[in-house]
Amino acid sequence: MNIGEAAALASLPPKTIRYYEEIDLIHPARAGNGYRDYSETDIHRLQFLQRARSLGFTIEECRMLLSLYEDEHRASADVRAVAMEKIGEVDRKIAELRSMKATLTRLVDSCHGDARPDCPILEDLAGGTAVCGGHR
Amino acid sequence: MNIGEAAALASLPPKTIRYYEEIDLIHPARAGNGYRDYSETDIHRLQFLQRARSLGFTIEECRMLLSLYEDEHRASADVRAVAMEKIGEVDRKIAELRSMKATLTRLVDSCHGDARPDCPILEDLAGGTAVCGGHR
DNA sequence: CATGCACCTTCCAGCAGGTGGAAGGTCAAG
DNA sequence: CTTGACCTTCCACCTGCTGGAAGGTGCATG
Fold this sequence. Notes:
The structure is a homodimer. By secondary structure, chain A is mainly α. Helices cover 62% and strands 3% of the residues of chain A. The first copy, chain A, has two domains: 3-74, Orthogonal Bundle (Multidrug-efflux Transporter Regulator, Chain: A, Domain 2), CATH 1.10.1660; 92-136, no CATH class. The first copy, chain A, is built from six helices and two strands. In chain A, β1 (29-30) and β2 (36-37) form a beta hairpin. At the A-B interface, α3, α4, α5 and α6 of A face α3, α4, α5 and α6 of B.
């Protein structure tokens, strides 16, 4: 199966699939004409990657999950630990975004928002106490 | 004032401050020895940038906010519009993260997490059709 | 058979927003 | 005079792709 069809089945752009090959996440066969030739197993792997990426796992985490997936003797606790760590990360990001939103909302509420030049938002950015949690 | 001191006052790494200069967000003077020499105004600008970045504004948005900040005839409504658009973005990101978290939590809850190899998390990532551990 | 078009290939460049390190200049203390 | 903390520039690298150029392939239509 050509890359275009594989892309449709996995809901991934062809470019992304080639990129995944470049970083050794997948190794499709080649047809006689040089085209990549994806097997059912390859499609499965790509779908696995698409789902894991959409859940927020990084490429390296996907690599780990794939190797766990293909290890007959893995412990489910190992997979669970990866997922729980990811939940923690997602929680931290949510908290940070909520803090950002609270500050932005306060700024917007304090701004009259008309044609006058005086603006509490800019005043706050220029010297207020708007530091709300590091974002890095 | 040298870059190190400016960095401390603005809560930004020196590398980042040099980067901001490279992309024309700031233009410090130079001392006789070639060192960058930051004025009070420069520090102010850097602090403005640090706060705006920590609120999630992109570099280009920061550039716009800075030019609004320095425009005596701006309308506060313009600034308010930028901030409100950013609130919308933050909201969208929060919603997406909450959806991720819900799925991850469901997966983790369904996984016994012991030494056995069967794992609902991997089964779900694989599409629910594959037998866990029987792959390849 | 030519033509056109969609598809495939490789390779190179670039996005945001920095970070790391090498190689070297400067300055104050001991 | 030496040490160490600064500072300088420059170049490469990070994540996770994405865009585009230049060219090969496959198939339908005229």
